[in-house]
Amino acid sequence: MTKKKIGILGASGYTGAELVRLLLRHPKVELVLLTADRRAGQAMGDVFPQFAPYELPQLVAIDSVDWAALQLDLVFCALPHATTQVVLKDLLAKAPDTKVVDLSADFRLDDAAAYAKWYGHEHQALELQKEAVYGLVEVYRRDIKKARLVANPGCYTSCAQLPLVPLLKAKAIEPDEIVIDAKSGMTGAGRAAKEAMLFSEVSEGFNAYGVGHHRHMAELDQEFSKAAGKPVVVSFTPHLLPINRGILSTIYVRGRRGKTAQELHAILVETYAKEPFVHVLPFGQTPHTRHVRGSNMTMIGVAADRIEGRAIIVSVLDNLTKGASGQAVQNMNLMLGFAESTGIDQPAMFP
User: Fold this and answer.
1) Which of 162, 279, 295, 314 is the most buried (most CB within 10 A)?
2) Of residues 72, 155, 178, 329, which has the active-site annotation?
3) What's the pLDDT tens digit per position in 199-241?
4) pTM for this one?
5) Is 77 assigned a catalytic role?
6) SS3 category, 269
7) Which residues form the signal peptide (predicted)?
8) Structural domains present in the chain
């Protein structure tokens, strides 16, 4: 079987490197394009030494790529928001049969006005925005299979949606009483040099950020409102942990119409019984970030709160894998007709 030709735009960032790590062992694809404007002309092994033993395309600038000539089957776009819109508009105009998984936030929001509000500028590819499919596989699997452009979800949002969407769809929790207390590792902030991300600035500390106005709120509200069938606005606060990988969300909910924590747990167990990348722990147990490190797995635990009628849900995933690149490969597998777990079924790295 001829391998599918794959490109990664923005290969010199953390999510780009994670895509390379996963796709190197994927049996049905071939990496033929890696872009990184500031690193153009360099080998991938020069930027990330772990790739030095492998034969990979040299990094090139996006402006030098002839999309029509390459005839790529699928492109992963790991570029900053706004930049992505311009690049993908050009790519799909010149190579309309190429499929795209976008890891930026540019196509996650259905409402162009909401995008402008949260990202500070008008959307520059509205026609593409209309066709984009939201890429949370466990919810939109059928639509993803038919899509040309998939908007890979955010890491924080995936970690919160996987436990909450089934409960909202089942009308099992009060939609107006959801509190999401989330923590992420440092790689969630990207690879660009930033003073606030220096080791001495973050080590031995722990802080909240984006309090009351984080951009992921728009994505959460959109998807929770769809699940509940009514407008939902949640309380969400992100925090920065001095670790490399991982997201842990502690979520507080109230059961609706007398639903107990045990009943909420049962709904999640039934929902995810056959899902390859979501595992619900026995009632009362909660997961650690190290249980999913380097894997595409999400683990969910449910416990009863001491306040009657309330439950505490703990959800964890690796922000670079299920929260970004692993989920992107999961989307690619569906879009190209492969078995969903191909190339991303590795267990967590522990210790």
Assistant:
1) 162
2) 155
3) 777 778 888 999 998 989 999 999 999 999 999 999 999 999 9
4) 0.95
5) no
6) helix
7) none
8) 4-131 (3.40.50.720), 156-319 (3.30.360.10)
